[in-house]
């Protein structure tokens, strides 16, 4: 066995965590040789429910699970944290304005960022899942100035996986055969799932696809999948979101296979004209250490327009949290 790794999960009593924690403890996240210490952060009202989840974790007798700590204090939760999964967030309530939502989340991710800055491990890597995920990651980073920019990511892997599965289904191939999918921008309805570079069996597919299907079916279906799940299930995506978080962190550590790529929300370095510092999804290759942006892809005029629209939304969110003094 290697040394135990501390994994912090926020929103630990919520429905995504209910799917996620068991996969972390079983070794899916960090592999079969890495013992895990779980630090679970919740609000005071949900600590009892978190205890219940911890009881179930205990009852699995996972060989890799070394400890479970439950707290409502970010300074305790992030102490020694190497992997932080920031799942807990404030959902939009009835009659809540967008600015109220951003401010409520600023009150969550600001203090968490400050705690991460002070007590997290030097090798900390962070994945923000709680919505608005990209802007919550931006707030977290602004409050953790000593943590290098490449440690902050937002979850776009669920959107990426949805796009892969949708294309595979359409072409009648296995999901594992689809490569070079890209989802750009915000984890919202403006996201741009981009098929222009996608490959099956090493060959581009876009020329085989009906452009009307791409624009009127593929893109809106992928971008609207979250709402479709809510309509069908009466609750938002949980197991698939947990699975995507596992996929994204696992690939971050293991590196991307071959010359494939994936999608992740990362701190922009200005690539593709995306304003520096914005947390925005782009096609990336995980190197095992960090992410390399897949640079110099041809961006056709339709894609350019879609990318600009979703980036504009992220800029508006950034400007709103800046105006509120959250970053
Ligand atoms: P739940 O409402 O089931 O759970 C959220 C939990 O977070 C609650 O138990 C709540 O008490 C806790 N929480 C709130 N404030 C907290 C704080 N300050 N510290 C610690 N815990 C806190 O939501 P769930 O379905 O689990 O979804 C969690 C978040 O993921 C939501 O913001 C949701 O919108 C977002 N999602 C993001 C996705 C992505 O792809 N980036 C996809 C799935 C999901 O919609």
UniProtKB/TrEMBL annotation:
It catalyses: (S)-malate + NAD(+) = oxaloacetate + NADH + H(+). The keyword Oxidoreductase applies. Residues 157-320 form the Lactate/malate dehydrogenase C-terminal domain. GO terms for molecular function: L-malate dehydrogenase (NAD+) activity. Its EC number is 1.1.1.37. It is an enzyme of class 1 (oxidoreductase). Substrate binds at residues 92, 98, 131, 162. The active site is at 187 (proton acceptor). NAD(+) binds at residues 11-17, 105, 112, 129-131. Transmembrane segments: none annotated. Keywords: NAD, Oxidoreductase, Tricarboxylic acid cycle. InterPro entries: L-lactate/malate_DH, Lactate/malate_DH_C, Lactate/malate_DH_N, Lactate_DH/Glyco_Ohase_4_C, Malate_DH_type2, NAD(P)-bd_dom_sf. Residues 6-145 form the Lactate/malate dehydrogenase N-terminal domain. Belongs to the LDH/MDH superfamily. MDH type 2 family. Catalyzes the reversible oxidation of malate to oxaloacetate. This is Malate dehydrogenase. It comes from Pseudonocardia alni subsp. carboxydivorans.
């Amino acid at each position: 066995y290697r040394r135990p790794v501390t994994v912090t999960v926020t929103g630990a009593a919520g429905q995504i965590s209910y799917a996620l924690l068991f996969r972390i403890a079983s070794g899916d996240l960090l592999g079969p040789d890495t013992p895990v210490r779980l630090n679970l952060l919740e609000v005071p009202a949900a600590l009892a429910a978190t205890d219940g989840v911890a009881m179930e974790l205990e009852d699995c007798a996972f060989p890799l699970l070394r400890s479970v700590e439950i707290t409502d204090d970010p300074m305790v939760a992030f102490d020694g944290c190497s992997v932080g999964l920031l799942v807990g967030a404030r959902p939009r309530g009835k009659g809540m304005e967008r600015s109220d939502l951003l401010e409520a989340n600023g009150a969550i991710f600001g203090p968490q960022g400050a705690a991460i800055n002070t007590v997290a491990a030097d090798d900390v890597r962070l994945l923000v899942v709680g919505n608005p995920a990209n802007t919550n990651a931006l707030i977290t980073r602004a409050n953790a100035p000593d943590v290098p920019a490449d440690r902050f990511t937002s979850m776009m892997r669920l959107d990426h996986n949805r796009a892969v599965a949708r294309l595979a289904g359409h072409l009648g191939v296995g999901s594992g055969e689809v490569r070079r999918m890209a989802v750009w921008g915000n984890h919202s309805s403006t996201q741009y799932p981009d098929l222009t570079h996608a490959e099956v069996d090493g060959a581009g597919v876009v020329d085989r696809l009906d452009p009307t299907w791409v624009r009127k079916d593929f893109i809106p279906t992928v971008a609207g999948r979250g709402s479709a799940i809510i309509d069908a299930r009466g609750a938002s995506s949980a197991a698939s979101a947990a699975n995507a978080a596992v996929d994204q962190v696992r690939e971050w550590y293991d590196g991307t296979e071959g010359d494939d790529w994936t999608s992740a929300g990362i701190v922009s370095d200005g690539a593709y004209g995306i304003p520096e510092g914005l947390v925005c999804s782009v096609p990336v290759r995980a190197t095992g250490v960090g992410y390399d942006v897949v640079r110099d892809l041809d961006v056709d005029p339709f894609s350019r327009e879609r990318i600009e629209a979703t980036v504009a939304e992220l800029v508006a969110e950034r400007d709103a949290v800046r105006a509120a003094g959250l970053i």
